[in-house]
Amino acid sequence: MITGPGGAPDKADPTAESDDWMPTTSSTGLPTPEVGDDEEDDEGQNASAQLVEEGVKRAEQEQILQAAKDASLDNE
After folding, report:
1. What's the pLDDT score for residue 65?
2. Domain map of the chain by residue range?
3. pLDDT at residue number 70
4. Which residue from 1, 16, 31, 75 puts its CA 20 to 30 A from 56's CA?
5. pTM of the model
6. Cα 47 to chain center, whole Å?
7. More confident position, 7 or 55
């Protein structure tokens, strides 16, 4: 909360507490669906870990190919 002179809440501050907002006591909200990433492969990795591993493998392959290209250009 932003305070104005003398420590009083600044009326221009949109984050200042307001009496305009009154939560309803009868509203209980809705349960959120569970979003999980719990499916694991044979090695016990979830989908996120599988994507990371796949990205690392691709990066290694690209580095190997680039190194081979650079070596062949150096030999010319």
Report:
1. 96
2. 44-76
3. 92
4. 75
5. 0.44
6. 15
7. 55
